[in-house]
Amino acid sequence: MADLSAAYNIADLCEIAKRRLPKGLFEFVDRGTEDEVSLRNNRAVFERIMLKPRTLAGVSGRSQEITLFGNSHKMPLVIAPTGIAGLLWHEGEIALARAAAEAGIPFTLATGSMTAMEKVAEQAGGELWFQLYMWPDKSLSHQLVERARASGFKALVVTVDGVVSGNREYNLRNGFTIPFSFTRKNVTDVMMHPGWLLNVLAKYVFTTGMPRYENYPSEIKYKVTARPMGRSQMRNDSLNWDDLKALRKMWPHKLIVKGILHPQDAIMAADCGADGVVVSNHGGRNLDGAVSPIEVLPEVVDAVGKRATVLVDSGFRRGTDVVKALALGAHAVQIGRPTLYGIAAGGRPGAQRAISIFRDEIDRVMALLGCRSISELNTDHLHFANAAAFSAGHGKPGLKLLDSTKAVAER
Ligand SMILES: Cc1cc2nc3c(=O)[nH]c(=O)nc-3n(C[C@H](O)[C@H](O)[C@H](O)COP(=O)(O)O)c2cc1C
C-alpha cells in the first residue's frame, strides 16, 4: 500500500496513481481529448480569478455544511460519475461510495460501472445518485431507470454531453481496450504493473470473471467489447428534450441534467422539469475547445439559479477552486479524477485521503477569506484579473472571463 500520508495534495495522489496503473489505464483517466485545450483551460481559468479576503471576521466554528435538494451534506462536494473506479481497484465503486458516505457527501454511480447498482446500493450506504447514458433503444435505458428507482437511488443524473464519443487518440495509441485485446505493447504495460495485475485484474478473473459493464441489461451486457475504451457505449445522437421530458415523467425523485454549458440549455432543462443542472465539459474529455464551466457558471446561475440547483465540475483540484465556484453561485462542486487518483492509489483510504485534502483546503481558505459558512461566500470575495471583463450577473457582479466572450458580448 502506498504511503498516503505523503500525499499532501491531489497532484501527489495523481503521481501515486500514475505509478500504480498501466499507462493505458492511467491515460484513460487522466487525459482529455484531441489537443487537450479544454483540459488545460479547465485548470488555467482558476488562475484568472483571485481571492479578496476579509479580515478580523471571527472565523472560529467554521462549517462546510450545505443543503442540496433538501438534504444536508457535510461538505460542498459530490462524487461525479466516472464508471472506471472498478478498474482502478477491485470493486472500486463500492470503496468510493463508502468513502463518500463517511464524508457525508453524495456519490454518483455511472451507467458504465463495473459493479451492479443493486450491489452498490446494498453495500455502500450514504446518499446515492445514478447517472444515465441514454441508448438508442430507449426502452433499455428506461429499464435502468426503473432498476435505479427500485434500488433506492435518490437522484437521476442524465448526461447530455456525450451523444457521440470524444476523440481520444491516446486510447488507440495505447491499444487499451476492455476486455484486454492482447497486444505486445499493452501486455508489457500490464506486466510492468504487477500490483494492479494481481490486486485488481486477477481478483476479478478468479472471482466473477473478466470485468464487465454490470449495469447493462442482459440484452447488451458484454465483457466490455474490445473497442477502444470510451468508444463502445452505443451513444445516442438523436437524444432531444422530449427524451428528457419522458424521463421526468417516469422518475419520481430529483432529476439532474449533466453537461450543460449554455444558459439557454439550462433554462430548457429547468422547463422540462429538471431539479438541477451540472455545468460541465466532462472534464475536458469530449469536445475539445469547449469553454470551461467556470467561465459560463455566472450566466447559468443567472438563468436558472433561483429555480434549479446548479452544480459544476471539471478541473477542480484545490480547495481554492471549490471556494471560487461557490462564490460564483454554484450550490456544490463535483469531483471526478481527484477521487479516482485516490482509489487507484489506495482504494477506500485513498479516496478518503482525496476528500480530506479538499476538506482541509476548503476549511483553510474559508478561514483566510473571513468566512464561517458556505452561504457567506459571494463575488465580493473575488477579484478578476481582467476587471474590464466584468458584466452584470445574478444580482451581484458576475463575470465574463474570456476576452473572446467579452468581444461577443460587446458586438
Ligand atoms: C475516467 C473518467 C470516466 C468518466 N465517465 C463518465 C461517465 O460514465 N458518465 C458521465 O456522466 N461522466 C463521466 N466522466 C466525467 C465526470 O463525471 C466529470 O464530469 C469529470 O470527471 C469532471 O472533471 P474532473 O475529472 O476534472 O473532476 C468521466 C470522467 C473520467 C475522468
What does it look like?
The structure is a single chain. Strand 5 (107-109), helix 6 and strand 6 form a beta-alpha-beta unit. The chain is globular. The strands form 4 sheets. It has an 8-stranded parallel beta sheet. The protein has a two-stranded antiparallel sheet with strand order 1-12. Strands 2-3 form a two-stranded antiparallel sheet. The protein is built from 16 helices and 14 strands. It has helices at 10-20, 23-30, 37-47, 85-88, 92-103, 117-124, 138-151, 169-174, 184-191, 194-207, 241-250, 263-271, 293-304, 319-327, 337-369, 403-410; strands spanning 49-51, 66-68, 71-73, 77-79, 107-109, 128-132, 155-159, 254-260, 276-279, 309-312, 332-335, 382-384, 392-393, 396-397. Helices cover 43% and strands 12% of the residues. Helix 1 runs antiparallel to helix 15, helix 5 (92-103) runs parallel beside helix 15 and helix 14 packs across helix 15 (337-369). With 411 residues, the protein is of the alpha/beta class. The site of flavin mononucleotide has 23 residues, from helix 2.
